[in-house]
Amino acid sequence: MSRNVWILLSLCCGLISWPFIAQLLPNNHVIRSPKLKVNLNYILPGKALTINWNGTPIFIKNRTLPEIRSSRLVKLNDLKDVFARNDNLDARSLAFDRNRCADTSCVNWLVLVASCTHLGCVPEIKSNGWNCTCHGSFYDNSGRIISGPAPHNLRVPRCKRRSNLMIIG
Ligand code: FES
User: Fold this and answer.
1) 118: Cβ below 6 Å to ligand 1?
2) In the chain, which end has fewer C-beta atoms inside a 10 angstrom radius, N or C?
């Protein structure tokens, strides 16, 4: 077959397959919401909600007083990762429980990116924290890594509380 026939065939294949390829490309009309407002009234003490924020899973937990107390007793020396990993604070902030909360006035509210810092699985909520069943990482009730292969604490995304709303982003 001559070279020109090959070129013509390639062009025809390209034109025919373009509509299928175009469907796979990112859609410019999908609006990604920069901020997410979550009504906190529906999250009872001791309960957590998992939501999707622009494709990122987020945990919001309403911690009980015993959960807060036990998290506050953990010493920095006992932690695998001593940094708060809180996008609302300076990057050098330490992983004290108070530095992990959504804001200092509401120590019960914990907001976390629900992505294990090992390889990104979504950990399961347990009574004493979060367990990543993929390879056995365990995070405490403050989202700090306690054991397993995960290197860092779960990240606290940018968030602030306004009355009964948690604004993420
Ligand atoms: S992804 Fe969580 S422990 Fe590996």
Assistant:
1) yes
2) N
144 lines ligand 1 (CB under 6 A): no
User: Among 3.40.47.10, 1.10.150.530, 2.102.10.10, 3.90.550.10, what is the CATH number of 36-168?
Assistant: 2.102.10.10
Decide: 150 in ligand 1 pocket, CB within 6 A: yes
Q: Is the pLDDT of residue 29 over 50?
A: no
Please indicate whether residue 135 is annotated as part of the active site.
yes
Q: pLDDT (tens digit, 9 = 90+) per residue, 50-89?
A: 999 999 999 999 999 999 999 999 999 999 999 999 999 9
How far apart (Å, rounded) are the C-alpha atoms in residues 153 and 13? Answer: 50
pLDDT tens digits for range 139-167 = 999 999 999 999 999 999 999 999 999 99
CA of 32 to the centre of ligand 1 (A): 27
Query: For the segment 105-134, what is each residue's pLDDT rounded down to a tens digit?
Result: 678 999 999 999 999 999 999 989 999 999
What ranges do the domains of the chain cover?
36-168
Q: Ligand 1 centre and the CA of 124: distance in Å?
A: 11
